[in-house]
Amino acid sequence: MSSPITPLDQPWTGVLGGIAVDARYDAATQTIHTTVRNALGQTQCYVQVEPHLKSGPQTVGELGPGQVGDLQPGQQATSSLAVASEPELAGVAFDGYVIHVEVFDCGGPGPVPHTGGEGGGGEGAGGEGHGPGGEGGSEGSGQGGAAGSEEGSGANLALDETFDAVRGGARLILSYDAAGNAFTGTVQNTTSGVLPQVRIEVHLSNGVELGPTTPVDLQPGQVLAVQLPATAAPFTGWIAHAEVGSGGEAGGEHGGGSQGGEGGGEHGAGGERRGGG
């Protein structure tokens, strides 16, 4: 789950899936300092922070993730991540940031090591730079979980291909409209329960992340139209994914996948409990 896009000269304070967050950008050192506190009554495991650097609405780079470990109820920790820690971001212009918080299943293996940043295969082999598990964890299967990992699969669709997959109970069908330079399609609730905080992201081969769309609660069987304008910068491939969540990415961004969603901000107010289930 992630915060809204915040200008560099402003701090951001909020709660992402049970994790209270206080973040700020230090222009002098080009460092994002984030203090996280467990606001829930149970232990939050494998907590990590990953700031996304934004140029307008587009993600131009990612820092970390900064692993702060397990947090007992009320416990807090601080993560400080400098732009200089990611050599590929040298010279990259950005004017805002988003704080992306992840919490994993305490019974699972925890996060997959960061294996790459934004790149041609949908932001690295792991999706958002979290390794082969995609967005930081093994694939789960629970409703409301980021089950599966389309963006982390390493698969890159051609511009004339259609994406059609179910993740966390949400079936996403998406294709690229070259004439309109946008991705269009539908997302459907395939379950018998409400899917909270459903939102869609598209990752382009040029490293740009589109979305997420505004989080929406989908009723059983409900179909929602999806449209995400693409970047003006050229790209040759893409990958998409639906995210579902109600408990915050402390639960999404992913034992049964995402318990929360990335709702509200870049990834919504839900959040992902991606785990090892």
The largest pleated sheet is described as: 5 strands, antiparallel
Give the assembly state of these chains: single chain
The CA-CA distance between the termini, in Å, is 19 Å
Q: Class by helix and strand content?
A: mainly beta
Secondary-structure element order, as H and E?
Answer: EEEEEEEEEEEEEEEEEE
Helical percent range? under 10%
Can I get a quick summary?
The protein has strands spanning 6-7, 12-16, 19-26, 31-38, 44-55, 58-62, 66-71, 76-82, 96-104, 157-158, 162-167, 170-177, 182-189, 195-204, 209-210, 216-218, 223-229, 237-243. It is mostly beta strands. The relative contact order is 0.19.
How are the SSEs ordered, and which strands pair?
Elements: E1 6-7, E2 12-16, E3 19-26, E4 31-38, E5 44-55, E6 58-62, E7 66-71, E8 76-82, E9 96-104, E10 157-158, E11 162-167, E12 170-177, E13 182-189, E14 195-204, E15 209-210, E16 216-218, E17 223-229, E18 237-243
Antiparallel strand pairs: 1-9, 2-3, 3-4, 4-8, 5-6, 5-7, 5-9, 10-18, 11-12, 12-13, 13-17, 14-15, 14-16, 14-18
Tell me what you see in this structure.
There is one protein chain. This protein has 277 residues and is an all-beta fold. It contains no helices and 18 strands. It has strands at 6-7, 12-16, 19-26, 31-38, 44-55, 58-62, 66-71, 76-82, 96-104, 157-158, 162-167, 170-177, 182-189, 195-204, 209-210, 216-218, 223-229, 237-243. The strands form 4 sheets. Strands 1, 5, 6, 7 and 9 form a 5-stranded antiparallel β-sheet that branches. Strands 10, 14, 15, 16 and 18 form a 5-stranded antiparallel β-sheet that branches. Strands 2-3-4-8 form a 4-stranded antiparallel β-sheet, with no helix packed on it.
